[in-house]
Design goal:
homodimer; Arc Repressor Mutant, subunit A; elongated; disordered N terminus; DNA-binding
Chain lengths: 207, 207
Amino acid sequence: MEEENSRANDRELGRREQTRSHNQALILAAARAVFAEYGYSRTTVRDIIRATPLAAGTFYNYYKSKDEIFQAIRDETALKVRPLLREARSGSKTADKFIYATFRTFFDFVVAEHAALVTGHSSNAMHVRVDTPEIIAGFGELEEDLASAIAAGILPRVDIKYLTASIAGLAFELSENMMDREKPDPEAAARFATDLVLGGISGMAKK
Amino acid sequence: MEEENSRANDRELGRREQTRSHNQALILAAARAVFAEYGYSRTTVRDIIRATPLAAGTFYNYYKSKDEIFQAIRDETALKVRPLLREARSGSKTADKFIYATFRTFFDFVVAEHAALVTGHSSNAMHVRVDTPEIIAGFGELEEDLASAIAAGILPRVDIKYLTASIAGLAFELSENMMDREKPDPEAAARFATDLVLGGISGMAKK
DNA sequence: GCGTTGTATGACACTGCGTCAACTTAACTT
DNA sequence: AAGTTAAGTTGACGCAGTGTCATACAACGC
């Protein structure tokens, strides 16, 4: 349905929209780099725009504020991990596979994307943080999946809200602990977390 | 050893130091209130000082910057919980008591102090956050105590670093989950977390 | 009393965000 | 292909908020 010679997918975009999305990408990439280097509060919108060939005012043609672009970056990352987690869990027929897949996928993601995980909002903390509101929200899906798994008899009946929070808490804190080590080992971390959760809930179920 | 009629403990302070500490406390209290209401970025130093009878410049006689007073507040809170946690664990002769005391004390503290737990640095998130760097650092002591407990045979041998991170992660995330509920129940949360950890590590030990 | 030293004050300099009127460029019209 | 419109670009500007500083003031020692 396209014209011939449409190698590039922006072939049939007008020049306008072409440069628009080009510039948008330019700004976003610059912002990611600068935020990663200086953290939120110490980067200025001018710093970001200085890393592009554009002028100061142009920034606001693409993003309403410094806050908005920061959100955009974090959303982007969070949105990437959600389908991965869902997908990883989907085929799991046993409790062990279900829980392990969740942790392993998350830890692998953190290792792969840690440069993109924007550092804290705070003054000069260059620490990698994974417990952003966007990622936390992503664990809402986990709650649904846990409910299904319990209904299907894969997992024993326990308080779902607490269990979801527990898995999220383990995922966040073990991620950061893992990344602080010389050689991050997602397999070991996932194994530990899985054993903890499985042992814990099987103990609870017996009561 | 004091003079008679020394009801107030600033009796033998000079007037100077008396008003100094008075003003300091005044500013700190005002800051706590204003930060709690508007969050970090939306409160100005002028907002803080306006809640006291002092003038703008005076603020900087007591604190170097807005950031510094924010840190001071967080440190103060973090420093309060540490001895409580140590104390709570100290007498515990069984694994269950040891772990439960840790969680229960932490959750009770969060409930009691939640107004003082300054909300996130971020734009307008009024969410209570307990995983500040200062509080996270406090869990270093937990690691030492876990090591002792394992040495004493109270807890089975497991990876201490992962276990510490796990307990911290559970404490943080369950705290926030607990505070989001209509009626926070530290007992139930602590019970859940304890069962999870105990069941988990006893499972690991058997391997 | 009287110098000295620490404190209070608000005007000011400075930095950084977000806006806007003037200008440029793309797309469309006839 | 010249003319019209719509969209994008630009940097100077307005404004808000931080932190500083010269001046004024109050406490302390003598």
